[in-house]
């Protein structure tokens, strides 16, 4: 039974059900992959920046111990301070900024203490959410 509609991907005539949108699974997959990739460009860009920030902090933490580094060092390595996954505020009011489980605390003279969140040293819940 002719459908009189065209495939949304390749524009060929479609045979079959009247509500069919694609001529075959290949066209359906191609169409949906293209639409989803266009919709996720910003998400993928942000996730890439967050992963890079995480990798930079991880690379500067010897044996996952805390360490202090300068802002200049972080910026030279490509760290982007505009992107974090969350902020943890301590009881004393210090704000740790995290990229997943790796984070930093601004100390003094443009220096940062780098840390890794462990189950026992930081609460999982945070009182502020940032992306």
How do you describe this structure in short?
With 131 residues, this protein is of the alpha+beta class. 31% of the residues lie in helices and 26% in strands.
Strands in their spatial order, largest beta sheet: 3-7-6-5-4-8
Q: What's the total helix number? A: 3
Mean pLDDT across every amino acid position: 87
Radius of gyration: 24 Å
Main sheet record = 6 strands, antiparallel
Q: How does the overall form come out from the CA principal axes?
A: rod-shaped
Counting helices, strands and paired strands, the structural category is alpha+beta
Please report the distance between the alpha carbons of the first and last residues.
52 Å
Please report which band the strand proportion falls in: under 5%, 5-15%, 15-25%, 25-35%, 35-45% or over 45%. 25-35%
Spans of at least 5 consecutive residues with low confidence: 123-131
> What is the share of helical residues?
25-40%
Report the order of strands and helices.
EEHHEHEEEEE
Key descriptive features of the protein:
six-stranded antiparallel sheet; 8 strands; disordered C terminus; alpha+beta; single chain; 3 helices; 131 residues; two-stranded antiparallel ribbon
Detailed description of the structure:
With 131 residues, this protein is α+β, with helices and mostly antiparallel strands. 31% of the residues lie in helices and 26% in strands. The strands form 2 sheets. It has a 6-stranded antiparallel beta sheet. The protein has a two-stranded antiparallel ribbon with strand order 1-2. The termini are far apart.
